[in-house]
Amino acid sequence: MEARLVGLKQVPSITEVASRGNELLGKEAPGNPSYIVVKITHVQVLQQHGGYDALLLVEVDQQEPLNLKAADEEAIVELTSTIDTPEEKA
Fold it and tell me: Measured between alpha carbons, how far apart are the two ends of the chain, in Å?
């Protein structure tokens, strides 16, 4: 497991800082698409011009790349192309 810093700028409230931090969990680390955020280990918040800037220290884990064969890719495309998309509501 590795650590990364994630910065948040001009966040309107502390609650929003917490919400954005929670939204990172289980998703790709910003600027590091091959890493998934596993845990937030530290948060530092500074009040700036009526809002907040925050720095989050997160633990990340590297994703294993999928090695699909051409036949697998074709099967996935064929299966997903048959799925009906919901009609837009007027």
Answer: 48
